[in-house]
Specification:
Number of strands: 2
Helix content: 40-55%
Strand content: under 5%
Shape: elongated
Strand order of the largest sheet: 1-2
Radius of gyration: 27 Å
Distance between the termini: 76 Å
Length: about 140
């Protein structure tokens, strides 16, 4: 019991932190294993050059982000998703893998690309019936 306690200057007993001794070594061991496994996984990923996918693939990825995620991005941001789709088609990235695509550019940086590549907006009156009619079509 004395090994688990220390005495302060005022002779009050205070407990030692569980992060002393062997617990720290176990934690460090797991951190090292985690870092090594992540480094191994990252080393298996191949990088696709921007020249390996077309403008059409980037625009398609931009539209996919808008339809499925509700995110409006510029074409440069959609390029990461286009690259992921290409890696998925080639079997380099499996369907069940978790992947993060960084999309930092807002679609308002390049609204002309969005306007030129999307269907024209649907005109609608300002009544509930008009909205319901359009949604049912």
């Amino acid at each position: 019991m004395a090994s688990e306690m220390e005495f302060s200057q005022h002779n009050k007993v205070k407990r030692r932190s569980p992060w002393h001794g062997p617990m720290v070594l176990v934690l460090l061991f797991f951190v090292v294993i985690l870092v090594m496994s992540l480094a191994f996984r990252v080393s298996k990923i191949e990088v696709i050059n921007a020249s390996e996918y077309t403008d059409e693939e980037i625009i398609s990825a931009q539209q996919l982000l808008g339809r499925r995620e509700g995110v409006c991005v510029e074409p440069a941001s959609a390029a990461s998703v286009a690259g992921l789709r290409k890696l998925r088609q080639e079997g380099i990235v499996d369907r069940d893998e978790r992947v993060v695509c960084i999309c930092t550019g807002n679609g308002l940086k390049d609204p002309d690309t969005i306007i030129n590549n999307c269907a024209p907006p649907i005109k609608c009156g300002n009544s509930v019936e008009d909205v319901e009619r359009i949604l049912s079509e």
